[in-house]
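lol so apparently i was supposed to do this last week
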Amino acid sequence: MDYIITTEGLTKKYKTFISVNDCSLHIRKGTIYGFLGPNGAGKSTTMKMLLGLTAPTKGRFTIDGRRFPEDRLAILKEIGSFIESPSFYANLTGRENLDIIRRILGLPKDSVDDALELVGLTEFGNRLAKKYSLGMKQRLGLAGALLGRPPILILDEPTNGLDPSGIHEIRILIKSLPGLYNCTIMISSHMLSEVELMADDIGILNHGRLLFEGTLDDLRQNTRKAGMSADHKLIENQLEDVFLAMIEQDNAARKQRAKL
Ligand SMILES: Nc1ncnc2c1ncn2[C@@H]1O[C@H](COP(=O)(O)OP(=O)(O)OP(=O)(O)O)[C@@H](O)[C@H]1O
Ligand SMILES: [Mg+2]
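anyway here it is w/ adenosine-5'-triphosphate bound
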């Protein structure tokens, strides 16, 4: 299998608290990988480690054949990222904000217009960032990640705060990117229903541990095995239930272990 990102036993410990626990991910090149888990599961922490924003306590990872930490800079050059809520210079326009990132990355001038167009912000490029709506700010964050069309995108809840049509538009955009320029996307969310509409593969994290990794079809198979329903339509609807049941089961097992 042609994996572009693999992690081996990736672990992050804050004092005594384990935020990410022995996490081994496998992300296929040219696909969309949905990274799921409830609040506090460790999604952002994992992504921050991949971006070199926080150091792993244990474990290692490889991105496009390059190893962390030896090739940290080369890795960073290949990744466009959107982590939590990106911040911008409020008194600069959207275009000016992107231009600052563009210059830091040493990209050609027209990459700003390209990114604005990709996220549908062309007509608002000259508006001050402080006058952007929440959805426009999310789009600007996404444009920042897309500058120079990097081969890998790491997007942490990019549809957070968007209205339903905004979520739909961003989803269509994200879904189109691998076909548009052959990139690989890792995207986090706590909504399986949202991710299943765009992801090829998914990883489910709970309390820092990877509970499941595989294709949506694998998860559907699990649903069938669990005897949730023989009816295909119902299975579709119950995928979210399986996801929630998986988390609940893990939480219950955890409580049981804690009691012993
Ligand atoms: N700097 C830090 N110091 C101590 N604990 C931290 C730190 N950063 C994160 N954590 C803890 O690590 C756990 C995982 O946090 P993380 O932000 O990775 O979760 P998440 O899956 O992204 O959640 P959400 O869906 O709410 O964004 C949480 O319990 C969080 O409080
Ligand atoms: Mg997070």
